[in-house]
Amino acid sequence: NIETFLNETAAIEKNIETIHANITRIQSLQSNILVATSTNEVDAISYERNQLMGDTRQLLIENKDRIKQIEYENAKLPKSDPKYGLRTQRHGFLREKLSNILNEYRGAEDDYIKHQTERTIRQYKIVNPNATQQEIDDYMSSPSGQPVFQQALLRTGEARDALDQVKKRHNDIKRVEETVAELADLFKELYLQVEAQDQTIVNIEGNATEAATKLEKANEDLGRARLSAAAARKKKWICLAIILIILIIIAVVVAI
C-alpha cells in the first residue's frame, strides 16, 4: 500500500543523509592523514577511516538495491494506476539523490588520491632527489620492485622513515582506488544495469500475464461453446419429443 511505500522511501532518504555525513567525516579523516607526522598517528586515523568506509560501502549497496526494487515494482504498474505518478516521482528523486552522493564521494576520493600521490612522490625524492619522471612513474606503479630505498637504507635514518611512509601511502592509494572503481560500478548499476535487468524481468512477466489472459479468454470461449452445445442438444431432444407426439396422435387418429 502507499503508506508502506512512503515509509520505505523515507527510510532510504534518511540512509542517504547518513551516507553523506559519513563521507564528510571520511574527508576530514583523510585530510588529517595527509598532514599526519608520525606512523602511529596515520595508523590510528586510517583505522577509523577504513571502518567508516566499510560501513558506508554497505549502506550504498543496500540502498542502491532498495531503489532498484522500487524501480522494478514501478515498471510492473500500468501508467493508469493512481499511485504510478507518485511512485515514479519518488523513485526519480531518490535515484538522483543517491547518484549525487556517489559523484560527491568519487570526487572526494579522487582528490585524496591526487594529494596522497603528491606526498608519496615527495617522500621518494628525499632519497632520490635526482629522479626522473620515468623513474617516479615506475616506482608509483611498483614500489616493491624498485631498489632505491634498499640502497638508501645503508646511508640515512631519514630514508628508513621515508620508506615506511611511502609504503603506507602507496597501499592507501591502492585501497582508495578500489573504492573509486566500486563507486563507478554502483553508479552504472543505478542507471544502466538495473534498468536493463528489470526490464527483461518485466517483459517476461508481461508475456506471462498476456498468456494467462489469453488462456482465461480461451476458457471463457470454451465454456460458452459447451453451453451452446448443451442448448443445441436440448433443442434436438425437444424437437424429437414433439415429432414423436405428433406421430402418436396421427397413429391414434388412423386407428379410430
What does this 3D model show about the protein?
The chain crosses the membrane at residues 237-255. The protein contains six helices and no strands. With 256 residues, the protein is an all-alpha fold. The chain folds into two domains: 2-193, Methane Monooxygenase Hydroxylase, Chain G, domain 1; 205-255. It is rod-shaped, with a radius of gyration of 37 Å.
Write the layout of secondary structure elements.
Blueprint: H1 2-35, H2 39-76, H3 84-127, H4 133-141, H5 148-152, H6 157-255
Helix pairs in contact: 1-2, 1-3, 2-3, 2-6, 3-6
List the main descriptive attributes of the protein structure presented here.
rod-shaped, 2 domains, single chain, mainly alpha, 256 residues, Methane Monooxygenase Hydroxylase, Chain G, domain 1
- Residue windows where pLDDT falls under 50 for at least 5 positions: none
Q: What's the total count of β strands? A: 0
Strand content: under 5%
Terminal-residue CA separation: 83 Å
Tally of separate helices = 6
* Total domain units: 2
Radius of gyration: 37 Å
Question: Which range best describes the helical content: under 10%, 10-25%, 25-40%, 40-55%, 55-70% or over 70%?
Answer: over 70%
| Secondary-structure content class | mainly alpha
Task: Give the CATH topology of the largest domain.
Answer: Methane Monooxygenase Hydroxylase, Chain G, domain 1
Indicate the mean pLDDT. Answer: 79
Quickly describe the structure:
The protein is mainly alpha-helical. The chain is 89% helix and 0% strand. The chain crosses the membrane at residues 237-255.
